[in-house]
Structure formats: structure tokens, C-alpha cells
């Protein structure tokens, strides 16, 4: 897990916006831990980015909830 977190941090830090960094890290760690099918991961990423763009989130804590919610919906709809 440590390698995954390091890789995700390196990949996400350049995004500079805290909600984007949080979303990137959460999605990256989700991919490392659960290795969902590509269709579920793509759906989760799209859903998360859409919610962040739509609601102009600034609260980083809410991002993890959004990723979790999107993942559950995408997993349910694509399995």
C-alpha cells in the first residue's frame, strides 16, 4: 500500500487545486486497492469529476464521499 500512496501522491500533487488533488488521490488509491474493471474505474472518474465541476467543491473532505458514492453507483450499474 505504501508504494501505491507514493505513486498517487507524485501523480496528483501537480494538480494544485485541493479538491482535484483529493479526487486524484482517492481515485488512484481506489484503483490500487480494489483494481476495479476499467469500465467501473472510468465511470467513477467521470462521475467524480462531473460532481466536482458541477458543484465547484472546495471542501476536500466531501471529495472522498463523492468518490465512494460514484464508485458504488458505477459498480452496481456495470457488473
Provide a descriptive summary of the structure in words.
This protein has helices at residues 2-12, 18-34, 38-55, 60-78. It has four helices and no strands. Helix content is 82%, strand content 0%. The chain has 79 residues and is mostly helical. The protein has one domain (2-78).
Q: In terms of topology, how is this protein built?
A:
Layout (H helix, E strand, L loop, with lengths): L1 H11 L5 H17 L3 H18 L4 H19 L1
Helix pairs in contact: 1-2, 2-3, 2-4, 3-4
Keywords: Signal
Protein name: Acidic protein
Q: Helix share of residues? A: over 70%
Give the uncertain stretches in residue-range form.
none
Structural class by sheet pairing and helices: mainly alpha
Largest sheet: none
Number of domains: 1
Rg estimate, integer Å = 12 Å
> What would the average pLDDT be, to the nearest integer?
90
Total strands: the figure is 0
What is the general shape? flat
Strand content: under 5%
**Helix-strand pattern, N to C?**
HHHH
Number of helical segments? 4
Q: What separation lies between the terminal Cα atoms?
A: 26 Å
Amino acid at each position: 500500500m505504501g508504494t501505491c500512496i507514493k505513486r498517487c501522491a507524485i501523480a496528483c500533487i501537480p494538480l494544485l487545486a485541493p479538491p482535484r488533488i483529493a479526487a486524484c488521490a482517492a481515485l488512484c488509491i481506489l484503483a490500487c486497492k480494489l483494481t476495479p474493471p476499467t469500465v467501473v474505474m472510468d465511470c467513477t472518474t467521470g462521475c467524480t469529476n462531473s460532481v466536482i465541476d458541477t458543484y465547484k467543491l472546495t471542501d476536500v473532505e466531501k471529495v472522498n464521499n463523492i468518490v465512494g458514492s460514484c464508485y458504488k453507483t458505477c459498480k452496481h450499474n456495470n457488473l
